[in-house]
């Protein structure tokens, strides 16, 4: 889900508003409790006095940024109660660290460390309790639109195949599938079939349908245009299946794309000169800042690799040709995490639990430390912080032949992290490449500063919870 909140926006908005209020309540309770705490310990150890407006605003803003970074506002978050509570705890730990750092520089803007600590603990309790109650309180869940799917063939079946779990349908409820002439035979639950002779307008009125998804396999002279127009006049939204999948899953169904959709749909706009210059300034600035803070980690990683097998001739850095912007090749730089002879038999897909990975390599891959030298690629302008992950030429040639529109991912600069890394688990095969391409094309279509910031912040979640792909 993207930050525009078009999908499930009602539920996310409610969460943001209520939890912002709970953060303010937590700090207020902290202030109110200080006179009571003063009776239990020396008065000098607590901070009597009201908190300023700036303290309330800063505490709430940093708290919300931290919960956002932990993925707590992602409608497709697949976590049980324990996982959600863990993320809330980690979010407030992150908030405490950020606020303590700000306090050291601008103490007038943030509460004192003791207030921050107590307010953070109270926030964990309040937000955690609220999250436990959300499923049980009517109106606080994500708003579910009632949809009718026009079609029951190959295109319509993707909803049944790819959106089976409850979490995939948190934003909508399928009233039924109405078969259309020309539909290919596909397996859709027979209980959801609607008689094709049912008057469309009567059905959407009786079932309170909010949206009609046009998913028939054959459209030429088959669509009930007059009925669809009448439904639209009654306030029912009409959406193409490709746009529906894009909105609900954050990916583009490459296997269902037809050229006219690519041409007429919004997005897929090239970056202008101003955007390119701003990208360069932002990427270069962030790379310099990260290198300033990360050089001890880079030095320690290099030393560990050298101690393991570098003394026997193994290199510390690993250079590999990748395909970048415009299909141009460049050499990506990483800390070596595999044996020196890892590709003695030719190029291979990396895989989970790869036996070619060294002991040091296993650790640095787990925490993404092997990626740090790519900051030099960013400084050279070959990569950005956000974008599709660059692939090897050998695999690009194979994938471009088999996957439609694969070359479109090279219309933007590759990145250290990307939309596919946030949304798709670890995988390295042609099937995984197809799934990642769906997310990469979504990024290419919707690329913006807001989406880049969203991805960059959410990367914190990927690193902490070992999610994503390489």
Automatic annotation (TrEMBL):
InterPro entries: Bact_transf, EPS_sugar_tfrase, Sugar_tfrase_EpsB_2. It comes from the Bacteria. It is a multi-pass membrane protein. The keyword Transit peptide does not apply. Keywords: Membrane, Transferase, Transmembrane, Transmembrane helix. Its main location: membrane. Pfam families: Bac_transf. The chain crosses the membrane at residues 12-36, 56-73, 85-104, 116-134, 280-307. Residues 282-464 form the Bacterial sugar transferase domain. Belongs to the bacterial sugar transferase family. This is TIGR03013 family PEP-CTERM/XrtA system glycosyltransferase. It comes from Corallincola luteus.
């Amino acid at each position: 889900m993207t930050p525009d909140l078009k999908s499930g926006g009602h539920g996310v908005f409610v969460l943001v508003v209520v939890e912002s209020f709970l953060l303010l309540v937590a700090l207020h309770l902290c202030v109110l409790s200080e006179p009571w705490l003063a009776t239990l310990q020396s008065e000098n150890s607590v901070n009597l006095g009201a908190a300023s407006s700036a303290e309330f605003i800063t505490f709430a803003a940093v708290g919300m940024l931290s919960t956002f970074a932990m993925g707590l506002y992602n409608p497709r978050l697949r976590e049980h109660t324990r996982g959600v509570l863990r993320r809330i705890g980690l979010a407030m730990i992150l908030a405490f660290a950020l606020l303590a750092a700000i306090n050291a520089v601008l103490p007038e803007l943030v509460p004192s460390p003791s207030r921050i600590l107590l307010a953070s603990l109270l926030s964990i309790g309040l937000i955690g309790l609220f999250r436990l109650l959300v499923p049980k309180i009517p109106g606080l869940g994500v708003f579910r639109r009632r949809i009718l799917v026009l079609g029951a063939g190959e295109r319509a079946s993707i909803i049944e195949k790819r959106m089976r779990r409850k979490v995939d349908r948190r934003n909508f409820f399928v009233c039924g599938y109405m078969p259309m002439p020309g539909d290919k035979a596909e397996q859709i639950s027979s209980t959801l079939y609607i008689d094709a002779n049912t008057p469309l307008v009567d059905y959407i009125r009786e079932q309170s349908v909010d949206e009609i998804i046009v998913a028939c396999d054959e459209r030429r002279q088959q669509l009930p245009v007059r009925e669809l127009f009448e439904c639209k006049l009654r306030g029912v939204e009409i959406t193409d299946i490709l746009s529906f999948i894009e909105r609900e899953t954050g990916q583009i169904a490459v296997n269902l794309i037809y050229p006219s959709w690519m041409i007429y749909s919004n997005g897929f706009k090239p970056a202008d000169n101003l955007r390119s210059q701003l990208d360069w300034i932002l990427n270069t600035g962030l790379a310099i800042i990260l290198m300033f803070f990360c050089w001890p980690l880079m030095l320690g990683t290099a030393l560990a690799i050298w101690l393991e097998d570098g003394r026997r001739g193994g290199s510390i850095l690993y250079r590999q040709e990748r395909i970048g912007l415009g299909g141009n090749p460049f050499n990506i730089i990483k800390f070596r995490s595999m044996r020196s002879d890892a590709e003695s038999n030719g190029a291979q897909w990396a895989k989970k639990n790869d036996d070619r990975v060294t002991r040091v390599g296993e650790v640095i891959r787990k925490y993404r430390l092997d990626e740090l030298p790519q900051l030099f690629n960013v400084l050279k302008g070959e990569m950005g912080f956000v974008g599709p992950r660059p692939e090897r030429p050998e695999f690009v040639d194979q994938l471009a032949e088999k996957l439609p529109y694969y070359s479109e991912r090279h219309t933007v600069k590759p990145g250290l992290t990307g939309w596919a890394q946030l949304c798709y688990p670890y995988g390295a095969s042609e099937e995984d490449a197809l799934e990642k391409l769906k997310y990469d094309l979504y990024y290419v279509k919707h690329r913006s500063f807001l989406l880049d910031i969203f991805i960059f912040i959410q990367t914190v979640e990927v690193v902490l919870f070992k999610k994503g792909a390489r």
